[in-house]
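*** Protein under study ***
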Amino acid sequence: MSSERPKLAPDTPKVITAWTSGGGRSVYLTSARGWTENLAEAEIFTGAGAVDVLAWAAKDQTHVADPYFMQVTADGKVAGRETLRETIRARGPTTHLNFGKQAGNN
């Protein structure tokens, strides 16, 4: 990983997030091993096996860059120490509702 992130215990609910290689948009890994911009579609991981999936995602450099674990609640809402940062990544800019993902800008 290119930046230091908080370590999460194996039993902590988490998703794998990254940036698209082509455009830098925030994406989340799905259970079908695809990438989505919708956090609600992300697979939630717990247990030691999540590390293996993160290692697989790190090899997917043609689609994404810098995948890492992001803490969520059991129902998939952003949680943990990085809540503000990850909420902004998931929703888009905080400047105005007419810009970013919340305005439908792709």
Q: What stands out?
A: The mean pLDDT is 84. The first helix runs from residue 50 to 58.
